[in-house]
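Before surveying the methods themselves, we first show a specimen of the format, giving the amino acid sequence and C-alpha cells:

:::
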Amino acid sequence: MEKVNAMNPVRIIDLFAGIGGFRLAFESVGARCVFSSEINPSARRTYKENFGDEPAGDIRNIHAMDIPRFDVLCAGFPCQPFSSAGVSKKQSMGRPHGFADKTSGTLFFEILRILEWHQPSAFLLENVKNLQAHDRGRTFTVIQKSLEALGYKLFVQLIDGRFWVPQKRQRIYIAGFRDRAAWAAFVRRFEDAISGSLFDESPLPKLADILDVDVPERYTLGDKTWSYLQGHAEKHRQKGNGFGVKGFADLDGCANTLPARYGKDGAEILIEQIGRNPRRLTPRECARLMGYPDDFVFPVSDSQAYKQLGNSVIPPVIRILAGAMVSSIDRGAVIGKESCVSL
C-alpha cells in the first residue's frame, strides 16, 4: 500500500479517540497524529500506553484554535444515540436518543465546529449502520447537509468488517474532501483497494484462527450465569424475538458483532466447550477479533478492555480507507488554518 512522504506526512487529529484505532491505521500508512481527544480516563490510559502520549479530555472544553493545524480529521463519534440497541433501550426508559440526547447525541456538532475553524483537506467519520435509518433518515440528512455546507464533497460507504476480521461488523464510513480532484482520486484508490481485498480469492478470516489453545478457567461461564442466559434466551424465543443467547459461535465462520457490554456475560459470542459450560472470548482474543496486533497493550481490567474493544473501530478496515485518503491529498496545498499552538 502506498505511503506518504515521511518528510512531509499527512497530519491527522483523532477525536473521540477511544484506544486509537484510527491512529494505528493512519500511522501504518505513514500519517502523523498531531492531536487526540478522549473523555474516558481508562481509554486514555490504554491509548497512552500504546502511543506514548495521553489524549486531551472532553472535546467540548477544547477551543478549536488550541488544536494544531492538520490535514485530516478522524472521528468515530459516539454511536449509542443512533444504534438500534441504544435507541431501543432509551425508548424503553423514556429517554431521548439521536440529536435529542444532549449528553452524546450532539457531539457531532463538535466535529462541525472544528472543521469550520480549521478547514482541513479531508475528514473520515465512522458510526453504526443504523445512523442512516435513525429518525426515518432525518438524522443522516442533517449530517450530510451540514458537512456539505462546509464545502466538502462526501463519499459514504457501508462496510462489513468480516472480510478483514472474523466478525460481522457493519459500519457506515463518511469521507469528505474539500478538493474535488482529491475526492475522485480517493474513490478510485479506495475501490481498487476494496476490489483487491474482496476478490483476491483468499479465504475469509475464521474465528478459529484467533482463538488461544490454553484459556484460563475464569473465562468459562459459571453455572448461575449460564443458567440465566439459557432461561433468558428461551423466554424470548417463546415471545418470537431474537434477544438472548444466539447459539454457539461458528469457529469456521465469523462471530457476531462484539458489543461494549460483552464483558458482562459474553452472550453475543460464546465458545462451546465439550463437557463444560461455554466460555467467553478473552480480551486478547477480542483484540484479534477487532484486528489489533498482539503487541497492543491493555493496562486495564478485563471489563474495561472488553468495553474499549467493543467501542473501537476495526483498524484493518480503517487502513484501507487511510491508504486511499493520504495518497490522494495534495501535500502542496494549504493545510487548513494556522493554530495558535507552536509545533
In short: The mean pLDDT is 86. The domain at 207-296 is CATH 3.90.120.10 (DNA Methylase; Chain A, domain 2). The two ends are 29 Å apart (CA to CA). Residues 286 and 309 are 7 Å apart (CA to CA).
